[in-house]
Design a protein that fits this description.
The chain is an alpha+beta fold. It has seven helices and ten strands. The protein binds a DNA duplex through helix 6.
DNA sequence: CGGAGTGTTAGTCG
DNA sequence: CCGACTAACACTCC
């Protein structure tokens, strides 16, 4: 579910509330997402203080006082939700699957307790997400596999042009390729192509310079705006405070299948598989090349 | 009611 | 190296 703006929102939220806190207890309700073996995982976290929270692409990295890192990948449906003591809800029955006022729920797999009584819940309906403890070297190796991080000084226009160079895959697939550009997922890839007026199946290498510049600008402006609005909640993304993101109000193509294009007011938003992923675009104003 | 589709990505195969 | 395709899982939608 969460892409760069959503993970960044969670990172910022969590930084405000758990930095400097000591983990006193680690409850593993389901071992599937825990990649280290439950006992090892708990030992690595017990009595450690959260020193810093970083992010690369859609991966969150919590630095521990031991010098190790807790990696958290939310994949499609993962959630990290923080609850402090005064808001703690006494256990009871579950309402809907995503009712965060009643944690833990049936998709809560791990609960961390902090010394001040607050708790952090890892929920993941589809169990694709993972939690992994790594040392600094292993962390750096994983970070090195990621491509350029948008909204940082690494991600310059020249870098972007270089990434697109000689790529015969559809531009959308390039945008989604985490080893080339970190953090863009299906929603933002479609939104970026729309904003740039580029048909998402166009081969990256066959785009002209003006289109590439438009794409570069769209990546920066859309991700920045999405972070400002705390991400997009389409189904089950929630911030660390259990709140929805508001960028859904600004989506131009995602979730607008068969609706009229906001820009040309002629086209009807189409949905076609491109690079194996459902892709929304306006067949009228997203230029088809070649 | 059954099958297709879902915001991710690691792994396989050609 | 590159790109296409699939599985992992549980739920919703048509």
């Amino acid at each position: 579910m969460p892409e760069l703006p959503e993970v960044e929102t969670i990172r910022r939220d969590l930084t405000k509330v758990i930095l400097g806190k000591k983990i006193t207890n680690i409850e593993v309700l389901h071992k599937a997402p825990v990649k280290d073996g439950v006992k090892k995982f708990q030992e690595a976290l017990k009595d450690k203080v959260i020193k810093k929270i970083d992010r690369v692409g859609k991966l969150m990295m919590l630095e521990l006082s031991s010098g190790n890192f807790l990696l958290v990948h939310l994949k499609m449906t993962g959630q990290l939700i923080y609850q402090n003591k005064k808001n703690l809800i006494a256990g009871g029955h579950s309402f809907s699957s995503f009712d965060i006022t009643d944690l833990p729920n049936k998709y809560t797999w791990v609960i961390w307790s902090f010394s001040d009584g607050s708790k952090l819940y890892f929920n993941d309906m589809r169990k694709f997400g993972y939690l992994k403890i790594v040392d600094k070297k292993q962390k750096e190796k994983i970070v090195a596999k990621y491509g350029a991080e948008p909204l940082t000084k690494i991600f310059t226009l020249n870098k972007f042009l270089e990434i697109l160079d000689k790529r015969n895959a559809p531009i959308k697939s390039v945008l989604l390729n985490q080893a080339l550009i970190a953090g863009i997922g299906n929603i933002y890839a479609d939104e970026v192509c729309f904003a740039a007026g580029v048909f998402p199946a166009t081969k990256a290498s066959s785009l002209d310079r003006a289109e590439k510049i438009k794409l570069f600008k769209a990546i920066n402006s859309i991700l920045k705006k999405a972070i400002k609005y705390k991400g997009t909640t389409f189904k089950n993304y929630l911030s660390a405070h259990g709140r929805k993101g508001n960028f859904a109000d600004f989506l131009q193509v995602y979730g607008r299948d068969k609706e009229k294009c906001f820009r040309c007011v002629q086209g009807v938003i189409a949905n076609k598989k491109i690079g194996g992923r459902s892709s929304r675009y306006c067949p009228v104003c997203q230029k088809v090349v070649g």
